[in-house]
Write a structure and sequence with these properties.
Elements (H helix, E strand, L loop, with lengths): L1 E4 L3 E4 L4 E4 L3 H18 L6 E6 L2 E4 L3 E2 L2 E8 L3 H5 L7 E11 L11 H6 L5 H24 L2 E8 L1 E4 L2 E4 L8 E5 L9 H4 L5 H12 L6
Antiparallel strand pairs: 1-5, 2-3, 4-5, 6-10, 7-8, 7-9, 9-12, 10-11
Helix pairs in contact: 1-6
Length: 216
């Protein structure tokens, strides 16, 4: 088992922007526990075991895969900068992108052939990762829809244990892009990135919508 402590630090633009916000760690731990439990109940295996403290999770030790898997339902963020697509364009079917986790190299995008050639994952493991990523997307998109929130995109990481592919890391407002379905208002880290308002208010509003009785 491992202990994961959620910090109050927030960074953007590869660490160029860096601040601390009271309650951020607690809010993200709350969200991560909620979503991991929600996914487990619907057949997705995660590393979550328990949450003994407001900002702490106990998780299963995994052999982490050095990849970030991004699932996009709507064009936004870096996708709009890199490709000829307008922000807000619905992507159907959802688009999976995979980045190689390496800070020094700037987390470059990586394709399936290279993932296999570098022995990061076998072809069956890579297929499993994509299937689970789309399953998670389906579950979370439906859930957020009921809460009046649009799941624009999200980033997840996987690990291996006993030969199985398991969801690791976190699922929180830090790792998702969320828009209000009616107004298009951001409820995620973009509020901080682009100074659209108070980011902790945005995070709290997500928790108030997804967790009945959440008092902040």
């Amino acid at each position: 088992e491992l202990k994961v402590v959620f910090r109050n630090d927030m960074t953007a633009f590869n660490g160029v922007k860096h601040d601390q916000f009271e309650n951020k760690g607690r809010f993200n731990a709350t969200a991560s526990e909620f979503f991991m439990r929600h996914l487990e109940e619907r057949g997705v295996t995660t590393h979550f075991i328990s949450r003994p403290d407001p900002d702490t999770m106990i998780v299963k030790r995994l052999e982490m895969v050095p990849l970030e898997v991004i699932v996009r339902n709507v064009a936004a963020g870096s996708m709009v900068k890199k490709y000829p697509v307008t922000e807000g364009t619905v992507l159907s079917p959802p688009v999976i992108g995979i980045d190689y986790k390496d800070d020094e190299r700037g987390d470059p995008m990586i394709n399936d052939d290279l993932i296999v050639a570098l022995h990061i994952l076998t072809p069956p493991e890579l297929t499993a990762v994509k299937i689970v990523a789309l399953q998670i997307n389906e579950i979370l998109s439906q859930f957020f829809d009921v809460c009046g929130i649009r799941l624009v995109d999200f980033k997840i990481e996987f690990g291996k244990a006993d030969g199985k592919i398991i969801l690791g890391d976190e699922i929180s407002m830090d790792s998702m892009r969320l828009w209000d379905k009616k107004t298009g208002e951001s409820f995620d880290k973009d509020v901080y990135r682009f100074e659209k308002g108070d980011v902790m208010t945005a995070y709290r509003r997500v928790l108030e919508r997804i967790i009945p009785g959440f008092g902040g």
